[in-house]
Write a structure and sequence with these properties.
The complex is a heterodimer of chains A (435) and B (493).
Chain A: H1 5-11, H2 15-23, E1 30-35, E2 39-44, E3 52-57, E4 62-65, H3 75-86, H4 98-119, H5 124-155, H6 165-177, H7 181-191, H8 200-219, H9 226-236, H10 242-246, E5 251-265, E6 268-277, E7 283-291, E8 304-312, E9 320-331, H11 343-356, E10 363-375, E11 378-382, E12 388-391, H12 395-405, E13 410-417, E14 420-428, E15 431-434
Parallel strand pairs in A: 7-9, 12-14
Antiparallel strand pairs in A: 1-2, 2-3, 3-4, 5-6, 5-8, 6-7, 8-9, 10-11, 10-13, 11-12, 13-14, 14-15
Helix pairs in contact in A: 1-3, 2-3, 5-6, 5-8, 6-7, 7-8, 8-9
Chain B: H1 2-13, H2 30-38, H3 44-60, E1 82-83, H4 86-98, H5 101-113, E2 116-117, H6 123-132, H7 137-152, H8 166-172, H9 175-188, H10 190-200, H11 206-213, H12 225-230, H13 237-247, H14 254-266, E3 267-274, E4 279-286, H15 294-298, H16 313-323, H17 328-333, H18 338-348, H19 353-362, H20 369-372, H21 382-385, H22 388-402, H23 407-411, H24 419-430, H25 438-444, H26 453-456, H27 467-492
Parallel strand pairs in B: 1-2
Antiparallel strand pairs in B: 3-4
Classes of the chains: A alpha+beta (435), B mainly alpha (493).
Chain lengths: 435, 493
């Protein structure tokens, strides 16, 4: 696939890599280069005597470079892609050299080995014992958590801002001890409420209620719908083997990457990718976790369209998914058929989803014919029926929306809840642009 | 929502302090609340949490978005010009990331020349850069089209789209804007500019008077004289000094006439017979009159040459005065054509020739310039008086001879350097890589032609220790030149 410059920059791990990659996107730096349907490669003269061998797997964007950088992708990978995006004519169509062939074939071997590994028998008794031991620990943790939540509401949340970081961290650690990392993250989120913001009480109670619903839900797990049981278990932190999940039937579609967000939690990078199935009209969240210095399994960038099958995790509101197999990727071209949806439809959909899964996270929406308007000294997005959704955008995003719109309606992808949404991308001149 | 507010208020107090009263709940929740309250074995905290969870979910379900009419903004007018190509937009994006105003100005200039517009998503970034860099504003406005005009109404920092009439700026604008307007007017209508200043003169404070008066240095004309002469009686010393400076630029002013009278008495061309009357001997005599008017010295002429000077005090006084007298004075005084005057000075008083050169530049007497071009002395002011091709030749000659000291004059050029001048200057720069670093090239990239790209690798500093620093500067220069090249290519394809 051919990525746009914007999409290539979205792959960069930091600003310095973007700048360095840009400097390498010129013919003077590349001793040799080439392209075929599988890969893009080049040899970049660095400070060493031998040029660095840089290669990009074009079927499922992946990088490899012989440079010693720990960043991923390195500046050479970004520079090579940028150079190709700017001057595709400079890359001769050729048979890939041996060092590229080796890497491409090793990647396919690795996939095969993974499949073989799955076929090995599992000791089910030992697995059941481990599962039972964990559930006991989680039960104990949930009981402790409910006592802690009751303590908070007994003494009142008025004093919550004064409690200090240790109060929240201690309880979060207790949840880690009880093998409930999901609950631990929710407690950290509760402690990170912006207590300086006016109306923090509502934000705090929203988070507390989600935590309470998950904990209380776990206590009544057998009485719940099987889908909801899975939601509660995964929110608490019970993992599901992705390899096993991949054995299930996937949803085949052209998946447009609407947006991407990365955050670091300790040594771990958590990457959220929001996808939209262009034919199935479904949304999906691809979460990737990787340690510093390691690489995500899939290099996803907003505006990229994956021709892939996704498998959703079991849920009453299927949303989180994994990529089962990817046949290739392209850039987005064209519009999206979502012109009839408006804020009322969004509100209805939210009602259905919230009533099924009250503690769910925000999901993207795509609304056509949205016009930015100013009302009561705030910016809103008005749909074609006159309904308003509050725009939660920083200054840069707001100006970009206004500049692209020019007062005309746009189709936009947004993330948010209730009546406040932040933009993640928009369609303009048959191109999807991130904001 | 009232029920949620009740929950928040109760949560703030805590269940320990809650009264016996039961807050109102929405009708749809009444049954659920009754079940929760009637649940056996539940403590008050559990009951509160269950009720709060029910209201929390109720609040998030069934939300009705607000509906309003008449809020739509007037849309931006359709564009008359086309947007720039994707390639040009990509180059612009890189230049904006580089944060290089000089390259940005070049890009905008190329875009304007091709009658193209910046794509809408790049507009906010561009308008922000132009808000910070005033010199980019006119081009930014031209390349932003109707969309730029439309969006500027929402951001006060981008109000430069709505330029006030110049006369209004002159009357009500900020001091720096007034100076700018007056300078621009002086270029095209010097009389009108002076009249504007005369009209507001009494209302200006002393500092503004001196600052505004400086604008009259542009296109000094005879018609300025009566008013400038009257300003010598002003109270403010700065104003008087500036008026005197201006008077020294206009032939026919009282001070220049005074200088001319002094020179008429002090300098004479003597023609004598030599070798028994067989040959004519010509010389220029310099002799100050016994009493020199003290006002001459009050006008800025120094009395003493200083211990290290090669001039006598008398010669030094005359040297200064000659520099303030139009060269045409000598045509009358010596009764000779300019060529003959030049030849007399060159032969009989070469030490005074630079003073004539200064006067040539001061009074803009361009017909005298060619006679000085072969001289060994460099006259920086001649650069603006020469046609572009001559400027470069003149600069190149002295750049080779005098080295890096001449680079600041080359930097004053308004046009891109030729390849030869650029390579000569860059070779000199390579020896001083800390002075001519990346920031220097960022600022002056407009002057350096793309044609030097292939030759840059061969340029090395004389001192090996400067090599690493020069490579860094050169790399930056190369990067900028490649971007400059991309600008041209993007708009030519």
């Amino acid at each position: 696939m051919k990525l746009t410059e914007e999409q290539i920059f979205a792959l960069a791990p930091d600003e310095a890599s973007k700048k360095a990659g840009r400097d390498l996107a010129s013919p003077a730096k590349w001793v040799s280069k080439g392209i075929n349907e599988l890969a893009l490669w080049g040899e970049c003269q660095g400070s060493g005597s031998k040029p660095y061998q840089t290669q990009v797997d074009l079927t499922a964007i992946a990088f490899k470079c012989s440079c010693p950088s720990r960043k991923f992708p390195c500046k050479h990978g970004l520079g090579l892609l940028l150079f190709h995006a700017r001057q595709p004519g400079s890359f001769p169509l050729a048979e890939s050299p041996a060092w590229v062939n080796d890497w491409i074939s090793k990647r396919s071997e690795k996939e095969e080995k993974k499949a073989e590994k799955l076929e090995k028998p599992v000791d089910e008794n030992a697995q059941a014992k481990r599962q039972q031991a964990r559930e006991q620990k989680v039960n104990a943790g949930v009981t402790e958590l409910l006592v802690w939540i009751k303590d908070i509401v007994r003494s009142g949340i008025l004093t919550a801002p004064e409690k200090g970081a240790a109060y929240w961290e201690n309880m979060a650690r207790r949840m880690v001890d009880s093998q409930s990392p999901g609950l631990s993250a929710m407690i950290k989120g509760l402690g990170s409420t912006n207590f300086w913001k006016e109306g923090w009480q509502s934000d705090f109670m929203d988070r507390l209620m989600s935590l309470y619903l998950v904990a209380e839900g776990y206590r009544h797990l057998p009485q719940l719908d099987p889908g909801l049981q899975e939601d509660i278990r995964s929110t608490i932190g019970f993992t599901i083997s992705q390899e096993e999940l991949k054995l299930k039937e996937g949803v085949q579609d052209q998946w447009l990457v609407l947006g991407k967000d990365s955050r670091e939690e300790g040594p771990l990078t958590i990457e959220q990718n929001w996808l939209y199935g262009c034919n199935t009209d479904r949304f999906a969240l691809i979460l990737q976790f990787y340690a510093r210095g390691q690489f995500p399994i899939a290099a996803l960038t907003p505006g990229m369209v994956l021709n892939a099958a996704l498998v959703y995790f079991a849920s009453v509101v299927p949303y989180r998914a994994i990529i089962k197999n990817q046949q290739g990727s392209t850039g987005w071209k064209g519009s999206v058929n979502n012109n009839s949806a408006g804020w009322e439809e969004v509100a209805k959909r939210e009602t259905v989803l919230n009533s099924s899964l009250p503690f769910r996270n925000e999901m993207p929406v795509i609304i056509g014919q949205l016009t930015p308007v100013n009302y009561q000294q705030q910016w809103w997005l008005q749909d074609q029926h006159g309904c308003l959704g509050k725009l939660d955008a920083d200054t840069g995003q707001l100006w970009k929306i206004l500049a692209v719109s020019g007062g005309e309606a746009l189709t936009m992808a947004l993330l948010g809840k209730e009546n406040t949404y932040r933009p993640i991308g928009l369609w303009h001149q048959d191109t999807y642009k991130t904001i | 929502m009232k029920a949620w507010e009740n929950i928040l208020n109760a949560a703030m107090l805590g269940t320990d302090k809650l009264g016996a009263g039961r807050p109102d709940f929405p009708e749809e929740l009444e049954t659920v609340i009754e079940i929760i309250e009637g649940a056996p074995g539940h403590d008050k905290e559990t009951k509160f949490l269950n009720k709060a969870a029910a209201v929390f979910n109720y609040r998030r379900c069934g939300l009705v978005p607000p509906k309003k009419t008449g809020l739509l903004l007037n849309a931006a007018s359709a564009e008359v010009k086309s947007y720039c190509s994707a390639r040009a937009a990509a180059v612009l994006h890189t230049i904006m990331e580089e944060n290089n105003p000089a390259l940005l100005e070049m890009w905008l200039s190329a875009c304007d020349q091709r009658s193209r517009l910046v794509s809408p998503d790049t507009l906010p970034g561009l308008l922000e850069k132009a808000a910070q860099q005033h010199f980019l504003r006119p081009l930014a406005v031209k390349c932003s089209g109707n969309r730029g005009l439309w969006i500027s109404q929402f951001n006060s920092a981008w109000d430069y789209f709505h330029l006030l009439p110049v006369e209004e700026i002159w009357q009500t604008g900020k001091p720096e804007d007034r100076v700018k307007v007056l300078k621009e007017l002086r270029q095209t209508a010097p009389d009108k500019a002076r009249e504007w200043l005369q009209q507001t003169w009494e209302q200006e404070n002393a500092a503004a008077k001196a600052e505004l008066l400086k604008c009259l240095r542009i296109n000094s004309i005879q018609a300025d004289l009566p008013w400038l002469e009257s300003l010598l009686a002003e109270k403010g010393q700065k104003v008087k000094d500036e008026a005197l400076t201006l008077l020294k630029q206009v032939p026919g002013s009282s001070i220049i006439r005074q200088y001319e009278r002094l020179l008429s008495e002090a300098v004479s061309l003597k023609k004598e017979k030599a070798l028994m009357g067989m040959m004519n001997k010509t010389s220029i005599q310099f002799k100050l009159p016994s009493a020199v008017d003290e006002t001459i010295f009050k006008s800025g002429i120094e009395k003493l040459a200083g211990p290290k000077s090669s001039f006598s005090d008398e010669q030094y006084i005359l040297y200064q005065v000659i520099g303030f007298v139009p060269p045409s004075f000598w045509e009358k005084h010596f009764d000779a054509a300019p060529g003959q005057v030049f030849a007399h000075f060159e032969k009989h008083a070469p030490f005074m020739l630079p003073a004539i050169g200064i006067a040539v530049a001061r009074f803009n007497e361009t017909e005298w310039v060619p006679r000085f071009l072969e001289q060994e002395q460099f006259y920086a002011d001649f650069l603006r008086m020469l046609p572009a091709s001559e400027q470069e030749k003149y600069l190149l000659k002295f750049l080779r001879k005098e080295g890096k000291e001449l680079i600041p004059y080359a930097l004053m050029s308004s046009l891109e350097w030729g390849r030869e001048l650029a390579l000569t200057a860059i070779r000199l720069m390579a020896d001083y890589p800390y002075e001519y670093n990346g920031a220097f090239f960022n600022k002056h990239i407009r002057l350096i032609p793309v044609s030097v790209i292939d030759s840059l690798e061969k340029i090395q500093p004389k001192d090996v220790n400067s090599e690493a620093a020069w490579i860094k500067s050169r790399t930056q220069l190369l990067k900028l030149l490649h971007l400059k090249k991309q600008i041209t290519e993007a708009f030519n394809t």
